[in-house]
Structures are given as structure tokens and as C-alpha cells.
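To whoever is covering the structure queue this week,

Two jobs came back overnight. Logging them here so there's a record in the thread.

Job A:
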Amino acid sequence: MNVYVAEFLGTALLILLGNGVVANVLLKQTKGHGSGWLVITTGWGLAVFTAVLCFADVSGAHINPAVSIGLAMAGVFKWAQVPGFVAAQMLGAIAGGALVFLFYKDHYSVTDDADAKLATFCNTPAIHNPPLNLFCEAIGTFVLVYAVLMFGEGGVRVDGGEHVKVGLGSLGAPLVGMIVFAIGISLGGTTGYAINPARDLGPRIAHALLPVPGKRDPDWGYSWIPVVGPILGGIAAAGLYLMGT
């Protein structure tokens, strides 16, 4: 499979499961309605786990432009591949957002809270404070990218004593999922922890394009924060990683 196809499919799967759990919790008359933040953070951690497990051995399953940029800044990923990866991730995120809408279409129709509908596509801050919101997104993504870089240096011993680097391969899927779960539980309460430009912007575009009944505006004024913040966090993580190598 082509690496760009893998990034498209991996990001679409991430959004289908991740935004899917948000829709299950927030939209009316679902089986999971009102089940809360713990369910959302668990669902997102498992969404990352599933996407990485499926596609890591093909493309590394970055499924996140901030990860691709951070790895390139750290010198462990080719800059020439970054534009293609980011484009695939963005298109996959739009597709994933559309799939969530189709899956829960009846529940969008019976839900009258336009803010809740928007939240099933993209992030909104608990308290609107752009400088702090930007800081929170940068810190959350810093934790993600730095942790990925650090465990990517490790490896395992297989039969015969051969040392195999784990990197971002499928063996790392549980670790990435746990990292995202930890970020969500500990740091997600301020902005909803996009920590991924494609995860927020792609479905936000889908929300603007799709015939979501009773929808509100996509809040384009806030949309730059979940893009710029994660990229800054990824760059900072790469900088610290390089200082220690």
C-alpha cells in the first residue's frame, strides 16, 4: 500500500472512531448519550491505537501533521514527504468527519444543540482565551511528539537475541494510545486537546460543507489555534529531543 494512502486511511479511521465517540456522548438518543469525559478520552486513546495498529507498518501512522513536522525537525523523517503526508492527513480527516455525520445522521436530526453538533466535528475551548488556548494545544502536542520520539529510540529483543527497533511501527500502537489517553485525561479540559491540526481543521471543513441540520457557524476565528498550537508543540518537542541526542 502507498504510504500516502495509508495516511489518508489511518487519519480517516482516527476521526471516524474519535469523533464517533464524541457524537455518541453528545448527540441525543444515542446509547452512549451523556456518558461523559472519561468515555470520550478512552475512545480517543483507542481510536489512535486502532489507526496506528492498522497502518504503522506501512507509513508509520503519523496521522497528524504536527507529528510529521516534529519528526522531520528531529531528523527522523524526510522533509520531502511532509507535504504529501499532510495533504493525505487533511483529506482523511475531512472524509472521517463526513463518515461520522453519515453514521449518526438520525441523531444529528433530533439534537437541537448546535454547539454540541459542532463539538462532534472540531474543538471549542472551555474558556475562550486565545493565548492560553494556544499554549495548551502546544503543551499537549509537545507531550505527544516528545514521548513518541523517546520511545521510538527503544527496541525489543526477539528470538535469537536480535534487537529490533520499535519506532512508530505497530508494536508502538498501545503506547501511542496510552499517551493520547493520558493527555486527554490530564490536559484536555481546557481546549478539548486537538493536538493535531488535521483532526480539528479537516472535520471543521466537513462541518461547513455538510448539510448538518440546525448547525451553527464553524467558528473560523478559533480554527487557527488547533493548527498553529500543535505545530509549535511538535517543533518544541523536536528541539528538546535534538538537544539530548
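Job B:
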Amino acid sequence: MIRSGTLKYNPSQLSIKFNRFVRFVRVGAFLHIMGLIGLIVFIIGLQKVFFYFDHEIYGSAYLWLFFSIWGLTIPFFSGFDALGRYQNYKQIKDSLYKRGFDPRLIKPFANSKCQRDAVLIAAEDLEIADQVKKVYHNMGYRWYHILPDAFIKNPLVLFYRIFWQRILFTKHYQLQNFYW
């Protein structure tokens, strides 16, 4: 745990950026994997499209064209979501540092696996991960709870504008107590 106010050395800009990148990758690991899967679907889909067009099987070609376009959208959505979860990570890290561990601070970030992952990475940085895991376990969350709670309660939430705004366009948060 390194706070900006108590540093005995001045880390270089390169080490700060590297550590921020590592945190971004760790916070959004699941989302980055989903983005890679989307790219794989896109590439395979394009190969199938060209194959079926060459053999004049147009129905299958258009179906694979749909899948490849769908696969291309996944990296964009998962990338924006990863940026949002990184903002959550920074926000909860500062809050936990300022106020200490309090379950009321982390409960608003229990709505999805990605948010819980962001809180857990922040808690690991602050060496309180066991307490956070215990709270989420007591709330009933397990490793297989992947889908957001809002989607489980109402699958039509995907058609609500506010759902996408909260997920994809989280406001930028500037760390106040840490370099990364």
C-alpha cells in the first residue's frame, strides 16, 4: 500500500503508469477475456462468411455475418465496462482508505461480478480482502454469480437507457490518496 502523502521516494511516471495499467487489467480481467472471445467470434465469423459466399450459400453467409458483427460489438461494450469498473476501483479504494472497512461502503458495489471484482482488488491493495470476501459471502454471492442483479430481477433492463449509462459511462474519478 503506497499513499502519495507518505512516500519516501518519488516513483517515476513509468512505474505509476505501469501499476495503473496492471490494476486496470486485474480489475477488468473477466471483461477483457470477454472482449477477446468477441474478437475470436468476429474472426471466425468472417472466415465463415467468406467461405459461404464463395460457395453461394447465402442464408448461412448472412447468419455468420450477423454473428461476426455481434462478435465485433462485444469488445467495445466490455471495454467501456472495464473502464467503468476501474473508476469504481479507484473510488472504493479511496473510500475504504479514508473511512476504514465498513460493509456499508462495499454493498453498493455488489450489483455485478465486475463491481465485486473491482472492490476485491481495491481491498487487496489495502490488505482487507478477507473481510470483503466474508461480507460478499454472507450476502450470498459465489464465484458463479456473473450476471448483474438488475438483469436477474428484470431481463428487460437491457432495453433501459439508465442501465447502459451506469455500466458504460461511469464518471471519471481521480485518486486522492494513492498513485495507483
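Note for Job B: The chain has one domain: 14-168.

Please reply-all if you pick these up so we don't duplicate work.
Q.
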